[in-house]
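Lay summary. Proteins are chains of building blocks that fold into shapes, and those shapes determine what they do. In this project we predict the shape from the chain. Here is one chain we studied, written as its sequence of building blocks.
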Amino acid sequence: MSEQYLAASYLCSVADLVPGSGTAVIKDGEQIALFYLPSHEPCLYGIGNYDPIGGANVISRGIVGDHGGELVVASPLYKQHFSLRDGRCVEEPDITLPVYPVAIVGDQVVIQD
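And here is the predicted shape, written in a compact code that computers can read:
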């Protein structure tokens, strides 16, 4: 395990991820949307799965894309775009999703504790 992630918790296996798409996991009662994008650096992003505008845990089901040079996911409910880097809503910057420090270590997806 890399030095940065020595104090880390297992979330899932890399085999559980779908390239170019989102997967939802639960850590300590919080839903996290993981986005595995093998052609990007970094290749894994973790943001909150709860869409505060739509009021549902659906962010992991959104479509990943580019919005003005920003890597985003579009909520499947009302189509707001959330930055995968910092969780900020592009259309409503005062709304943000939590961002989680996730990484792939070997064949495991981990979150820094």
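What the prediction tells us: The chain is about 0% helix and 45% strand.
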